[in-house]
Amino acid sequence: MTEDLIIQTIEPVTHDLGGFKVHRTLPSRPRTMVGPFIFFDQMGPAHLDMGTGIDVRPHPHINLATVTYLYAGAIDHRDSLGTFATIEPGAVNLMTAGHGIVHSERSPSAERAVGPELSGIQTWIALPERDEEVDPAFEHVGAPDLPVVEVGGATARVIMGELWGARAPTTTYAETIYADIALAPGASIPIDAGADERAVYVSMGEASLDGMKLAPMTLYVLRPGISATLRSEQGGRVMLCGGEAFTTPRHVWWNFVSSSRDRINQAKEDWKAGNFPKVPGDDKEWIPIPEIPKTVSYP
């Protein structure tokens, strides 16, 4: 029965950022993580005015990895390692913060000239405790290098981990699964029971799981050990994410994630004091630390 398949339904908190909306399902009060995924945002879809764009000024991260994946548009990424990379649809940017990194995300000038499109998913992956303080790193994997699986009228791009017998080259720290599933009208695809924790999210169109209609922009956490079939009658786009269950809780405050509250508090002080490295080519602006008195932890 479908009620035995879904163990949790997380509706989004929507933020209007002026010109586009962001729909956030993780972290939430009901649940902090699905596998290593601790942050799940859908950006757009939106078409911004000519001459405008997104301008996410330099800001810091620790003890996590950011994963950016676009359906439409482009974003220029710069970070304190000196990286400059433009991400486009079907590619993935993986930025490992480790002991500390600063980055910015802005619309390319060519996109601004015509009015940028913005549509995609941004997630954060919590790092296992052994890897929380690794050296920062950046990895761009182009669309042609991510495996695409076609089954039952569905086309699935494996972004991280191994699914349907195909493995993405993207670095993983904990066991991770992550895929973009495009369902043509009438298509279906199996969802295995392999990972400790899994969730599905309909980002566009419509889909159902074992006959249960899935609401758009809602994260459905699946019961461990049960397989299912994802279908769409009219066509849709679905993200599948999950992986290894973490045994140690993670604390979240602003852009910081850690197994240690003290570590987050240290990062706060470091950002206030200007101790994080600068972003070459984008060092004139930054996002100030919010005046929030204490670390937020989602139990």
Tell me the layout of helices and strands.
Layout: H1 2-5, E1 6-10, E2 13-16, E3 21-26, E4 37-47, E5 55-61, E6 64-73, E7 75-79, E8 84-87, E9 92-96, E10 101-106, H2 109-114, E11 117-126, E12 137-141, E13 148-151, E14 154-160, E15 162-163, E16 166-167, E17 176-183, E18 188-191, E19 197-205, E20 207-209, E21 212-214, E22 219-222, E23 228-231, E24 236-243, E25 251-253, E26 256-258, H3 261-273
Antiparallel strand pairs: 1-22, 2-3, 3-4, 4-11, 5-10, 6-9, 6-11, 7-8, 7-10, 9-12, 13-14, 14-17, 15-16, 17-24, 18-23, 19-22, 19-24, 20-21, 20-23, 25-26
- Percentage of helical residues? under 10%
Give the strand order of the largest sheet, numbering strands 1, 2, ... along the chain: 1-22-19-24-17-14-13
Give helix and strand order, one letter per element, not per position. Answer: HEEEEEEEEEEHEEEEEEEEEEEEEEEEH
The chain-level structural class is mainly beta
Mean pLDDT: 95
The percent range for strand residues is over 45%
Gyration radius (Cα, Å) is 19 Å
First and last CA, distance: 29 Å
| Regions with little confidence, pLDDT below 50 for 5+ residues | 294-299
How many strands appear in the DSSP assignment?
26
What is the number of helices?
3
- Largest beta sheet, briefly? 7 strands, antiparallel
Give the overall shape: globular
